[in-house]
Design goal:
five-stranded mixed beta barrel; 120 residues; alpha+beta; globular; OB fold (Dihydrolipoamide Acetyltransferase, E2P); 21% helix
Length: 120
């Protein structure tokens, strides 16, 4: 009975890790790269990648993001930064899910990648 409990526990932990880690394995980022203007027009729950700069902090986890086509609000939770520091001149690649609300569109960011870091 103890072996069965141990095996079931290990299976549960492994399954939890696999399903909680959607960014493991091959990712074809070219499919979902869009401009900010295109992202703002997309449907709720669309998964996209945008490239540009953060130009303003709105609140603890909300920022104004800009590319050559426009600006949008992005939400980046602290753990999504993965210890990276950026400034307004750094070019970033943000990947996440579009969240449509009554009067706004926000990109809920899953990953932050620095393309060009001007701090160095």
């Amino acid at each position: 009975m103890k072996k069965q409990c141990l095996i079931l526990s290990l299976l549960f932990i492994t399954a939890s890790f696999v399903f909680a880690s959607p960014n493991i394995g091959f990712q074809d980022d070219s499919i979902n790269k869009v401009t900010v203007t295109e992202a703002l027009k997309m449907r709720d729950d669309s998964y996209v990648t945008v490239q540009g700069n953060i130009i303003k902090r709105i609140s603890d986890d909300k920022y104004t993001f800009k590319d050559s086509t426009g600006t949008m609000t992005v939400e980046i939770d602290t753990e999504k930064w993965a210890g990276q520091s950026v400034n307004m001149t750094d070019k970033l690649e943000l990947t996440g899910e579009i969240e449509k609300k009554l009067n706004s569109t926000v990109l809920d960011v899953d990953s932050v990648k620095i393309i060009k870091n001007n701090n160095k």
